Amino acid sequence: MGMLVLTRASADSAKSKGALEELGFDVFVEPMFEVVHLRTEALKLQSYDVTVVTSRNGVDVIAKLTDERDICILTVGDSTMKRATALGFTNVVSAGGTVRDVISCLNAYKRGTKVLYARGEEVSYDLRGAAEKMGFEVEEAVLYKVVARANLSPQCCDLLMNGEILGVVFYSTRTAKIFTELSRQYSRLLRNVCAYSMSSGVFRALNVGAWKRILVSRRPTEESLFKLLLGIERS
Fold this sequence. Notes:
Elements: E1 3-6, H1 10-22, E2 26-29, E3 33-37, E4 50-53, H2 56-65, E5 72-75, H3 78-86, E6 91-94, H4 99-106, E7 114-120, H5 127-133, E8 137-148, H6 154-161, E9 165-170, H7 173-182, H8 187-190, E10 194-197, H9 200-206, E11 213-216, H10 222-230
Parallel strand pairs: 1-2, 1-9, 4-5, 4-7, 5-6, 7-8, 9-10, 10-11
Antiparallel strand pairs: 3-8
């Protein structure tokens, strides 16, 4: 089927790589960043009515900083929910989509609910501000940061120059922006490469480049993204 490049962090890409290879794709993992944990002191999550987590990275840090597994966790999507469940958390609900869907889910809670927003150093949406306007008490815990890579790997550059890459897969606006910056000198070669994105936000981040096509999955889930790759769903 051709070579696909996965751009998310190595740990997240490992499972996706195996699944795509079973579907017949050759896969090369080119992480656009590494995740650095920022907090070491324990988290006391029982002080909050609900903990909002928007990424698998956040769940990983929480699992290391607390032994509590029955706390109420609200995740932005199914992937983060599954990760939390795999780490032993027993009361996890997925908003099923975007950060704005998390805000919609918070409507089920009464005003004055104490919310912990566990997040990375940088965010693309002011979830705290939106929740506070709705009457919730929100505290933030900045648990990790993302450090972008400085260059594309020699292996990835060779694949591009040899025309071996069918498409590049993007799960987040962050990875899209980093790849766009690092691949500027190869823009001519990208005209023969498709970009597969998980959301309209990722599409906008990629739309500054010279891609053959930029395709967007119908839903912001890996399942929908894989269907797009297989041609089962249209962009």
